[in-house]
Amino acid sequence: MPQNADDMAIYISVAEDLKEATREARETMKDLAAERKRGEEMLARIPELVDNAIGDIVREKLAQMEPTMIEAMRKSEERVFAKFDQISEMIMGETKANRRKGEPSLHDLIGKMIGLPPGIPFELTVENTLRPIDDDDRR
Question: pTM of the prediction?
Answer without folding.
Answer: 0.45
